[in-house]
Structures are given as structure tokens and as C-alpha cells.
Design brief:
Elements lengths: L7 E8 L5 E9 L7 H48 L2 E6 L4 E6 L17 H5 L1 H17 L3 E9 L2 E12 L8 E8 L1 H23 L3 E6 L4 E4 L1 H5 L10 E2 H7 L2 H15 L6 E8 L5 E13 L5 E10 L1 H24 L1 E7 L4 E4 L1 H7 L10 H6 L6 H14 L3 E8 L5 E12 L5 E10 L1 H13 L1
Antiparallel strand pairs: 1-2, 3-4, 3-7, 5-6, 6-7, 8-9, 8-13, 9-10, 11-12, 12-13, 14-15, 14-18, 16-17, 17-18
Length: about 450
């Protein structure tokens, strides 16, 4: 008081609505003074007025700060939604639109201004909006998240969406609001439809080719198969069920190790293709040869295979022909060995020479080490006979006549063999020599007998 040179003082605290002191109003006088009741009343009124203004200013500042914070958060949310190209709706518990955030407003059924404050049914129509209305009400009531896929005609055309609705937590346990995040999945749906149609076309093409088709779920081991797949094995397609276990049980025991190895190697990515031949036991108990070809058509996010699509082709007739040819070849090999007669063929375009097994035995040459060419063949001929043999062959090609010549072979241990060689050359449409073929017969025994007879005479 002395600092202010005041000798009279009258003061009252200014209280806010919560009873907190926010200021003190007072009157000072540099002379002794007795304040009247009216002075005190005016001072209290003035003080209260100041408290109201202080509180109002503080509330305005807080509201401004909250508004700025909300604006910042909404801007961040809008930026996030824009970057994701999603749409986010906020509904009250009755399905009324409270807020809309859209990264791409072309995905909205109607402009934002025609959505806010209206119910889902008012915006989408009763028939289309009823399921969404019911979902929002359910989520608001029980708090359980729900997902739904749907298509909708928007300003950019018909699009596919996936929506997830979840209840927004409320601190005051009052009115409940629901957020719904909507994502455009049209590109994914188009890709899925193209894949489905592609697989359908493939299925129809393979069915038309009379091949059995399987669609194997690699997680469960169960397969969907075509009618041809079942009938190929003698089963009724209407009751036939296929699994990996049943497929393995029907397989011929001699084929299992090889087939399992190919299958596992393909599934694990160790080989680029799955193609294998094996025998399957038919319903009748007979064995049928099958060519199985397959390809992985679906993987999960980590690259693990999920589905394998493929075909089974009946190759029993081909296998029978192959076995018949092997039997004929075995008999031919046996006959050539008995007659000591082998056959050869020379491709004049590639200079590749083929010898039957009997010629290798006659020449006593390892098949794995022989340089299969005409020059390599000449190296096996007795040095004194090479020029004569080459001239006989060359003259035959030029004159287009078969040739026959007897010549010697010089073995690595110094022994000499005598052989009779016959040959003929064939020509292409332009008259150029393209292939020569012939036989070689070991006549050492006969030739030695002839020489002994000549010497005896």
C-alpha cells in the first residue's frame, strides 16, 4: 500500500463459474477514505464482469486451439485417404451420414453435399441401401466389426468395393457412431474374372481333347476333376472323389518313387515343369499308363503354392507300341548278334553317324568314347584299306549306285578283323545326297578259312 501511496483500500476476488479466483478488483485512495456500501456493490459487479470476460476469452482460446487441432487431424486424415484412394464414411447409430472423406470423389454414389445429413437409404435408395443400413445399426449396437463386398454404379461407372464397418469408441457412452472404410477392388475383381474365364476356356479345351483335368488344392490335398478323369480309370464320375492319398494308393509300386520325386521337386521350385508318366490301377484292377502334366496357378502372399491345375492323358496305346518296338528291336539285336551283322546310317547334312550295337561290338569300340562321324569311322579302319574304302564310298555317292567292299579293321591289340560292308546313298528333291545307310558284317572266320584254303593250294 505504501508503495502505491494509498491510505484507503477496498478489494474483492473475481470468481469464474467453477469458483476459482481469476482476478482481484480493488479501489485505492491516497487519502483516508471510508468506502460506502454502494462502492462495494459496484466493485463486486465490476469484478464479476471481469471474471466473465476472462473466462470467455479463455474458452475462446481453448476452442480455437481445439478447432485448429481438429482441422490438422482432418487434413492429415484427408491426405492419408487421398494417398490410399479410399473412402471413409462416418454414420450415427441410425445410419445417417455425419462425415465423408474421399480421396477420389468419383467413387461416391452422389456428391458429398448431397450425402451429409441424410440416411443411407435416402442416398442409395431403399432396396440398395437397406443391407448397409442394417449393418451400420448392428455394428453400432454390438460393436462387432463387419465386412462386405459389393458392386455399385458410380459416376465413373460400375465399380467393385470392399467395405469394413467398425464402431467408434465413445468416452461419454452417449450416442454411438460407426466408421466405414471403403476400398475400390475393381482391378482385382477384373483380374479374378479374367483368370476365371481363362481357366474355363482351358477346361473346355482340354475336355474337348478328351483329357482328364484336375484342379488340386495343395493345402488340403483334395482335387476337383473332370468326368473324363474318372471315366479314364473306369469310375462313375458322379460318385468319384479324388485326393492326393487316393491318387498315390492307385499308383503302381514301381512308379511311386520316381513320381513322388518329380512332384516334390516341382512343388519346391527345384524343377521348372511337372510332367511325368506312371501307371494307375483302374477300378477293374488293370493298369493304365497316364501322362500327367501340371502347373501351379495360384500362390499366397509369400509365394507358397496353393493350387495346381493339370491334365491326365491316357497313353496306354503309345506305351504298348513302345513296348512292341522294344521287343522288335531286341529281336533285331539278337539276330544281328547271331549273324554278326550290324547296320549304320550317316546324316550327310549334320555328319552324324548312327551305329547299331552290333557294329560297336564288331569294332570293339566303347559307345561313350566313339567320335560318331565319318572321319571317326575311317580312323577305325586298317590304315592300308582307308583310301580304298573312301574311294568306294565316294564313287558310290557320285554314281548313285550301291557299293559293297571287304576291308580290314585293326584292333588296339594288333588283331585284324575282316568285314563286308554294303552301302547306299539317298538324295533330296534337289538331287543332293542327304543320307547314306548300310550294313557291316564280321566275316573274319570265313575270310580266315578262305586264306587257309588259298595257302593250302
Amino acid at each position: 500500500m505504501k508503495d502505491h501511496q494509498a491510505y484507503a483500500y477496498c478489494g474483492f476476488p473475481a470468481l469464474d463459474s467453477q469458483g476459482h479466483v481469476v482476478a482481484v478488483t480493488c479501489l485505492l485512495d491516497d487519502k483516508p477514505h471510508a468506502f460506502t456500501e454502494e462502492d462495494q456493490v459496484l466493485l463486486r459487479v465490476f469484478g464479476q464482469r471481469i471474471a466473465v470476460e476472462i473466462e470467455r476469452s479463455r474458452h475462446l482460446a481453448e476452442r480455437k486451439q481445439v478447432k485448429e487441432q481438429l482441422w490438422k487431424q482432418e487434413s492429415q486424415l484427408q491426405a492419408l485417404i487421398t494417398s490410399l484412394d479410399d473412402v471413409v464414411f462416418e454414420f450415427d447409430e441410425h445410419g445417417t451420414y455425419l462425415n465423408v472423406w474421399a480421396g477420389n470423389e468419383k467413387l461416391l454414389f452422389k456428391p458429398k453435399s448431397e450425402i451429409l445429413g441424410r440416411t443411407i437409404e435416402e442416398v442409395l435408395g431403399r432396396e440398395l441401401g437397406r443391407p448397409f443400413m442394417e449393418m451400420v445399426v448392428r455394428v453400432a449396437a454390438d460393436g462387432k466389426m463387419e465386412d462386405v463386398e459389393y458392386s455399385l454404379e458410380v459416376s465413373s461407372g460400375r465399380r467393385w468395393f470392399v467395405a469394413r464397418a467398425s464402431r467408434i469408441a465413445q468416452e461419454d457412452h452417449g450416442s454411438k457412431t460407426v466408421s466405414m472404410v471403403v476400398r475400390d477392388i475393381t482391378d482385382r475383381k477384373v483380374a479374378e474374372e479374367e483368370l476365371r474365364m481363362s481357366e474355363e476356356r482351358l477346361w473346355l479345351a482340354l475336355t474337348a481333347a478328351n483329357q482328364g483335368i484336375y484342379d488340386l488344392d495343395l493345402r488340403t490335398g483334395h482335387a476337383q476333376v473332370s468326368d473324363e478323369y474318372a471315366t479314364m480309370l473306369g469310375y462313375d464320375p458322379s460318385i468319384f472323389k479324388e485326393t492326393n492319398a487316393q491318387w498315390a494308393e492307385r499308383m503302381h509300386p514301381d512308379d511311386r518313387e520316381k513320381v513322388y520325386g518329380v512332384y516334390e521337386a516341382y512343388i519346391r521350385g527345384k524343377i521348372p515343369a511337372y510332367e511325368v508318366e506312371f501307371r494307375q490301377r483302374m477300378k477293374s484292377g488293370e493298369w493304365k499308363w497316364v501322362l500327367s502334366i501340371g502347373s501351379i496357378v495360384e500362390r499366397d502372399g509369400e509365394g507358397r503354392p496353393l493350387r495346381m491345375l493339370g491334365t491326365h492323358t491316357d497313353i496306354s496305346e503309345r506305351k504298348e507300341r513302345e513296348m512292341a518296338l522294344r521287343a522288335v528291336d531286341a529281336r533285331l539285336q539278337e539276330a544281328q548278334a547271331m549273324a554278326k551283322l550290324g547296320n549304320w546310317e550317316l546324316d550327310l547334312v549334320t555328319n552324324r553317324l548312327f551305329w547299331s550295337n552290333e557294329i560297336f561290338r564288331i569294332f570293339e569300340i566303347d559307345q561313350a568314347k566313339f567320335a560318331a562321324s565319318y572321319e571317326g569311322f575311317l580312323n577305325a579302319i586298317h590304315p592300308d584299306d582307308r583310301v580304298r574304302l573312301n574311294e568306294a564310298y565316294t564313287q558310290s555317292v557320285q554314281s548313285r549306285t550301291p557299293y559293297m567292299i571287304v576291308h580290314r579293321l585293326l584292333m588296339q591289340d594288333g588283331r585284324v578283323k575282316h568285314v563286308m560292308e554294303r552301302g547306299e546313298t539317298f538324295y533330296d528333291e534337289q538331287g543332293q545326297p542327304c543320307r547314306s545307310a548300310g550294313t557291316v558284317q564280321d566275316i573274319t572266320v570265313q575270310r580266315m578259312a578262305e586264306l587257309q584254303t588259298e595257302q593250302a593250294l
